[in-house]
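*** Fold description ***
***
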Amino acid sequence: MKILVIRYKKTLGVPEGGEKASELNRHVLQQIVGEGNVDTYFIHDEAHHRTLLEYVRGVLYMPFGYYFGLTPKRVREIVCKAQAYDVVFVDRSVFGIIAKRLKETGYKGRVVCFFHNVERVYFSAKYSNKLNPMRWLVVHCADRNDRWSCRFADRTIALSRRDDEDLFNRYGRHADQLIPIAFVDRYQKDSYPEELTAVRPLCVFLGSFFPANVEGIEWFVRNVLPKVDIRMQIVGKGMEKVKEADWMRPDIEVLSNVPDLESVFEAADIMVLPIFKGSGMKVKTCESLMYGKNIIGTPESWSGYELDYNKAGASCLTSDEFVNAINDFCQHPRPRFNAYSRKIFENQYSSARMVDKFRVVLED
């Protein structure tokens, strides 16, 4: 079996959350059919800087369902290339137009579409400012591609029951398989840190410079940080931009574009994930579980994860709930390495647990 994977972006430097999930998908597919039987077609390459002409062309094509980077010519190229493959794995439903064209042109192989989010919901959150002139155009394009993915893909994969229900309510199709966020386990050790959390704990927010992340950490800094005695780090690709924000404080450390996060995770007493908007599952939550962290997050940050929040940390919605949860750590230190979080990752969110689920999608 030969598989052609359609991916969004070939990343330079530190990948964002969605690209980490895409890389995991490719890794699992290679485990099933062999590395030499999986080829990748990237819609974007960060080594190539988009010109003004390319940007304008992208805007002009978007009303017709071509998300940035796709054009009719490139879709025809993908359709032609696909004839040599048994499976086309469309890694993001925002490229549903590829599934549509494959089926309309009589492609005989299997088309699989992986929903990282319900893209309409994701882009509504990304372009939350309703005065943004691009908002309607992007959300409309995402909505059409979600619909085409549901209609034309032979198999669809969603991350969680929430996304599955949303897809059914919007487009009338349940996902054929639910496969949650997962990671290749990069934190297998003979022994793990044994230190207790500090009385003045180091709280780390992890996330790239993205509207829902920035809104969440701003809310935390304004509403929670003044009421607790902690050290604070903000870590994520592009996050140096928040240094100029009017809500930023000089005692908050910002680490941007960190190539290896292991030392950041090991030093953190608590991961704080105040995310209020979005779709899909949060990659940062899975990564925090992998490193065995205490996690205090909103219900949105926990969405799709099946575990006991109180054993992993806490689920909080209001500022008072965050303050109480953090103060409990200050008053009652506990292991910085949370063995329960790590065990949940090993049992439910390690890539090794996903191979059989992907195999069913490919072969059933």
About this structure: The chain has a mean pLDDT of 92. The first strand starts at residue 3 and ends at 10. Residues 3-179 form a domain with the Rossmann fold fold (CATH 3.40.50.2000).
